[in-house]
Amino acid sequence: MNILFLTLVAYENINDRGIYHDFVREIARKGEKVFVISPRERRYNKETELVDTGNIISLRVKTGNITKTNFIEKGISTLRIERDYLKSIKKYFNNIRFDMVIYSTPPITFYRIIKHFKEKQNSITYLLLKDIFPQNAVDLGLMKKNGFIYKYFRKKEKKLYKISDYIGCMSEKNRQYILDHNKIEKYKIEIFPNSIKPLELEDKEVKNNEILTKYEIPIDKTLFIYGGNLGKPQGIDFLLEVIENFEKIENSFLLIVGSGTEYNKIKNFLEIRKLNNVKLMGFLPKREYDELVKQADVGLIFLDKRFTIPNYPSRLTVYMENYLPILAATDEVTDIKETIENSRSGFWCKAGDLESFLVYANKLANDEKLRKEMGRNARKYLEENFNIEKNINIILDKLYNWREPCSKTKSC
Predict the structure, then answer these.
(1) Does some domain include residue 114?
(2) CA distances from residue 240 to 31, 190, 262, 269, 270 in whole angstroms, order as listed
(3) Which end of the chain has fewer CB atoms within 10 angstroms, the N or the C?
(4) CATH, residue 309
(5) Residues 188, 221 within the same domain
(6) Is residue 410 part of a domain?
(7) Parent domain of 238
(8) SS3 letters across the chain
(9) Same domain membership, residue 62 and residue 177
(10) What gap in Å lies between CA 346 and CA 98, rounded to an integer?
(11) Do 270 and 392 belong to one domain?
């Protein structure tokens, strides 16, 4: 069967690892043909390109800049991306019938594309809900509740939910939030967690000193790592508090790797404080970042305490894959807390609670046996719950057993 996958994640190398790349490869491994449409931002000076590698066909569409740019350019490019994608679809895939169309948020502006395939080809449509916009922007003070911009995007959000045959949420609280705040039939909403294909790794006994030395990281300290987006959703002000007080965590070193709108804020903070137990690194290729994660002892997760929507960061899977115990400081709405507690894979505290954070960090820093135990628990939980080989059937079963959605006039 032919499956169309729409994403805003760059798809220049099909062999990269991550929740979307692993997702596409697993569908292809099952024998289905996947057509991936991804952005190729203007900054790279490359034209639209079609790449055929057998069961995975990638259409890399030239778009405006949607990452690492100012708010205005990002907004305009995001609004135009639906037009850019639809134009390319008609040019390159005009004679192909798609049995299923899968798409992820962000953005919420794929409605016209989804409508096109439902009306023209009766395709099954499946939304991978990865963020809840525009409410997340309201939570962070980036948008006024019930203002014109909010109403505009809220209308698009509702239309996307309505046209989707199924919606896969990252967690139970995600699912419940969507049901509580939208008029959606319950049968459409299910849990499809962030999932990867775990590498066959063994819990490390000895660190690779060569890698640590290469990046000027102490080889004799407990290494705490935070990797990923450095933007407003991560509650950077609390991260800065942690940085300033990190000396209170015995025999430890903090490594921050990533990029985002708040990167320079962290960089300037470190330049002024001149701390010797914290290191900030910019974006790294996935392979290099993965090598660094393998050397870490504790994985960190931060989310802004103001969130009223249940976020579920995908970096959790990377930490768990590498046998890392988790220390998370988040809002009280997300069910990351329940995941950590149920899996016995680390500690959780409310973002802003510096005292609790330091207590938990010191426990992890000074108890290698505890770290090892929690790390093994994390890996086990990943394999049982976040393994794409097991979870892909949640979606494919919809394709193989498709029938018209239930309604008031038709029984299921």
Answers:
(1) yes
(2) 47, 37, 11, 8, 9
(3) C
(4) 3.40.50.2000
(5) no
(6) no
(7) 209-385
(8) CEEEEECCCCCCCCCCCCHHHHHHHHHHHCCCEEEEEEEEEHHHCCCCEEEECCCEEEEEEEECCCCCCCHHHHHHHHHHHHHHHHHHHHHHCCCCCCCEEEEECCCCCCHHHHHHHHHHHCCEEEEEECCCCCHHHHHCCCCCCCCHHHHHHHHHHHHHHHHCCEEEECCHHHHHHHHHHCCCCHHHEEECCCCECCCCCCCCCCCCHHHHHHCCCCCCCEEEEEEEECCHHHCHHHHHHHHHCHHHCCCEEEEEEEECCCHHHHHHHHHHHCCCCEEEECCCCHHHHHHHHHHCCEEEEECCCCCCCCCCCCHHHHHHHCCCCEEEEECCCCCHHHHHHHHCCEEEEECCCHHHHHHHHHHHHCCHHHHHHHHHHHHHHHHHHCEHHHHHHHHHHHHHCCCCCCECCECC
(9) yes
(10) 43
(11) no
Q: How many CB atoms lie within 10 A of CB 35?
A: 22
Task: Indicate the burial class of 52 (C-beta count within 10 angstroms; 0-12, 13-18, 19 or more).
Answer: exposed
Q: Specify whether 161 is located in the same domain as 86.
A: yes
- By the 8 A CB rule, do 300 and 327 touch? yes
Average pLDDT per block of 10 residues along the chain, 412 residues long: 92 89 95 94 90 94 81 80 92 94 88 92 95 92 90 93 95 95 94 94 79 92 94 93 95 94 93 93 88 95 95 94 97 95 97 97 96 96 96 93 54 40
SS3 per residue for 287-340: HHHHHHHHHCCEEEEECCCCCCCCCCCCHHHHHHHCCCCEEEEECCCCCHHHHH
In the chain, the number of structural domains is 2
Q: Give a yes or no: residue 406 inside a domain.
A: no
Contact 171, 195 (CB under 8 A): no
Tokens of 63: 């778009």
Q: Quote the pTM value.
A: 0.90
Cα–Cα separations (whole angstroms), residue 336 to 185, 302, 310, 314? 26, 11, 9, 11
Say which residue the tokens 């005009």 belong to.
94
Closest CA to 122 of 165, 185, 69: 165
Distances (CA, A) of 272 to 244, 245, 266, 410: 11, 15, 10, 66
Does 326 lie in the same domain as 293? yes
